[in-house]
Specification:
The protein is an alpha/beta fold. Helices cover 35% and strands 17% of the residues. The chain contains twelve helices and 16 strands. The strands form three sheets. Strands 1-2-3-4-5-7-6 form a seven-stranded mixed sheet, with no helix packed on it. The chain has a seven-stranded mixed sheet with strand order 8-9-12-13-14-15-16. It has a two-stranded antiparallel sheet with strand order 10-11. The model has no long low-confidence stretch (mean pLDDT 97).
Length: 352
């Protein structure tokens, strides 16, 4: 039987922020999100150990890139792309999140630096090939989230509406920016090929690689921007990779995953280490409920639940309902460390 083969390259459960994954079929080899970043200050490990895990993760990513013909970049956070190492990008087809729209200000700045360096590989100056702004109308993204917008939050409903109204104002300011940006072009040279992947499908023989339209990075109008998720389909199998949907928190994103019924789901979890700061209890409960729905209604052969989640030692306790549901439904839910027969390092640290 023809199968999708995949190898998690490195992930948070191994000690550094990343969710880099190598996927292979008979047609194509794909490296998703080749970036790695150091753990936050509250992570219970000495700085020397955190730095070592970053170095080990980066070495693993560079090694995996040698096997890949295609590089996917789901967004421009440094735990998802590297700026810049030609060993990763030279000679590749790069399928990347568009840097021209559905992007916040900081990621746009990072994208400009990245594409300056990428284009320099072929002695092309980015500023000389930027295209004129393209003005277009952008819809209210909440109109594409009917499930999430239908939920009654009880006493929190008024506060939720207030936050969404503020978010919409922020979004409309971003629209002004997108309509004023000089546009980074797609490009094909002897040393690389660049295509922007948002909402597009690419075929490599019998392998289909399909990207979502831009999704919020976590909650509605998340200030940290947008990402694209990817589905890889080959033979009778499907793999879905989500980089930063944080659960997903948003119900409509869970609905999409359920409708696809992937065999393998590589899902980033809620960032429980930010609970009470960036993550509130309502949104944590939304994420837990959505993961449980995926387990019951999809259900995948394997759910790798990792990025964001194993950054604090109580993550399994906080997601007890998820693990209980997985046990009842006979769905294997594990971190990348556990995939390799290890404990997540955050648990090793607190038990030592």
């Amino acid at each position: 039987m023809e199968k999708i083969l995949f190898k998690p390259v490195w992930a948070d459960s191994l000690g550094a922020k990343t969710f880099c994954t190598l996927v292979k079929t008979k047609d194509v080899s794909i490296l998703i999100d080749p970036g790695v970043a150091i753990m936050h200050g509250s992570f219970p490990a000495p700085i020397e150990l955190k730095a070592r895990w970053v170095d080990e993760g980066y070495d693993a990513i560079v090694k995996a890139s040698r096997e890949a013909k295609v590089i996917i970049i789901t967004h421009y956070h440094y735990d998802h792309f590297t700026d810049f190492d030609e060993r990763i990008y030279k000679g590749k087809l790069i399928l990347a999140k568009s840097p021209n729209e559905y992007i916040n200000d900081s990621q746009r700045g990072r994208a400009l630096r990245f594409y300056t360096n990428l284009f320099n590989l072929s002695n092309i100056k980015l500023e000389e090939v930027l295209e004129e702004p393209l003005e277009r109308n952008y819809p209210n993204p909440l109109e594409e989230l009917p499930h999430a917008m239908s939920i009654d939050y009880g006493d929190y409903t008024g506060r939720k509406k207030e936050l969404l109204d503020k978010g919409l104002k922020w979004y409309l300011k971003r629209v002004e920016n997108w309509n004023s940006y000089k546009r980074i072009p797609e490009l094909k040279t002897d040393l690389f090929e660049l295509k922007f992947a948002d909402g597009r499908e690419f075929k490599f023989g019998n392998t289909k690689v399909k990207f979502t339209k831009p999704l919020f990075h976590g909650i509605e109008f998340s200030r940290v921007g947008w990402i694209i998720a990817v589905k890889i389909e080959y033979g009778n199998e499907k793999l879905i990779y989500s980089s930063d949907v944080n659960g997903p928190i948003i119900e409509d994103y869970a609905d999409w995953i359920i409708s696809e019924k992937p065999d393998y789901l590589l899902l980033d979890g809620p960032a429980t280490y930010t609970l009470g700061y960036m993550l509130n209890l309502i949104n944590l409960k939304r994420a837990i409920s959505n993961i449980c729905r995926i387990i019951r209604e999809a259900p995948p052969k394997l759910l790798l639940l990792d990025h964001h989640l194993p950054r604090e030692p109580r993550f399994k306790e906080r997601l007890a309902e998820v693990y209980d549901t997985a046990g009842r439904e006979n769905v294997r839910v594990i971190t990348v460390a556990e995939y390799y027969g290890r404990k997540p390092v955050v648990l090793e640290l607190v038990e030592s």
